[in-house]
Write a structure and sequence with these properties.
By secondary structure, the protein is an all-alpha fold. 77% of the residues lie in helices and 0% in strands. Helix 2 (31-40) packs antiparallel against helix 3 and helix 7 packs across helix 8. The longest helix has 27 residues, at 233-259.
Amino acid sequence: MSWELLLEHIGLFVLSLLANGLSALAGGGAGLLQLPVLLFLGLSFSVALATHKIASVALGLGATLRHLREGHLEPRFCGYILACGLPGVVLGAWSVLKLPEAWTLLALGLLTCALGIYSGCKKQLGMTFKPRNRDRRGLIIGGMGLLLIGILNGSLTSGTGLFVTLWLVRWFGFDYQRAVSYVLVLVGLFWNGLGALTISLQQAPQWPWLPALLLGALIGAYCGAHLSIARGNKLVKRAFETLTILVGIKLTGDALSLLQLFPVME
């Protein structure tokens, strides 16, 4: 292996380590760093998206290895989240390479920013675990929300794990630490895994880059999950709010660029 190739793989590993470590701490948002860099390195959008989606599966695996030791996951509720979200993931992943994305990214970016601001204004939101909406009506509405987020997860590049985190906190009464554990295990491993499979059937990823990205994601996710467990809800809540606003700004900027609403500076 040449020095240039070695440095390239080290850079990809560090990128994946940082992106997935932050994502494991906040409950989503790995694409904020990872996908733009893959595009900057010369991959087309479709190849970069397929590569990122496959690499993000290791985020779920690394987080799962850490969170399962805590015993916070309820098997029946895990099955409920998967049953509601996975059909949406497939639908979104089949449509992502066929639909224009600018206006969707703009709406998603503004909404994501609003989620972070909303959480910041609600000082006690997600600080304690108070289960609610577990009756039939609550589960139906909650499932519809998860289905819609699943569609976004399959079709868009970053930020949808953050949506699931806040949905579990706001609708089902989870604290942030517990919500993040569900998101990283179920969304990170199963939702992202199915989305990656669906997209890769349409577009081959950049296979030579995946080992470095997968290793970085696995280690970063484990470390981020450990930090969230060790430091508790206050740190996770702050990380969630910060990363949510940053993801929202990025998505909004991407959308405005695609729509060419601002002239390019010369």
